[in-house]
Amino acid sequence: MSLPNIETLDTDGAIREAELAVAGDTRASFFRKAAVGGGAVLGSGAILGMLPTLAHAAPSPSQDIDILNYALTLEYLEAAFYDGAVKSGNLEGDAKQFAQLVLKHENIHVKALKATIKALDGKAVKEPRFNFKGTNTNPAKFVATSLLLENTGVHAYLGQAARIQNPAILKAAASILATEARHAAGIAAVIGKGPFRDGTKTSITPDAAFDVPFSMKRVLKAVDKTGFIK
Fold this sequence. Notes:
Elements: H1 14-21, H2 24-35, H3 61-88, H4 93-119, H5 139-160, H6 167-191, H7 216-226
Helix pairs in contact: 2-3, 3-4, 3-5, 4-6, 5-6
């Protein structure tokens, strides 16, 4: 099973149709609240260019809150994805058990991130509405999308590690990163398409010995393209 990008999953065009149907300004507004700490302005619903200040800013308490809200955005998405998968009743065997376990973890991550933001006198972004267009209720699409989301989470957390000022927040983020990596490895094993072939899309180690950090800009662009956020 090859998973180069989300288009691989969209064999019937449902995700692309959803992306076209969802108002770009609505998604852009949500991401702006989630990730921008200063006056960065979006244009016509584009995620690109939304982080010109944050992307190059020195670590600071306010940036830590921005990063926490960015992480919360991703955790909202994952928690909703697995919640829908479990409630659908369509999953069986290892996939079902995986979804149940990871749903529990993602809900805990959401609560922990919101509590941390509050403790830092920040304001947590609200959870948006999602439409996964069957990718979490169709068993085949579920495992493929889950692998994609979990690996994206690993790249996203790793990409922010050097930008966090507060050591306690860095420790917590590293803990979540490790769990996300275990999730990604677990679903790769469930898929069973060469999970132990190093450096492949369905491997437990897709980037071989060293995972690759993704910038916030890159991750948000990828999430926006799925059209999952209404």
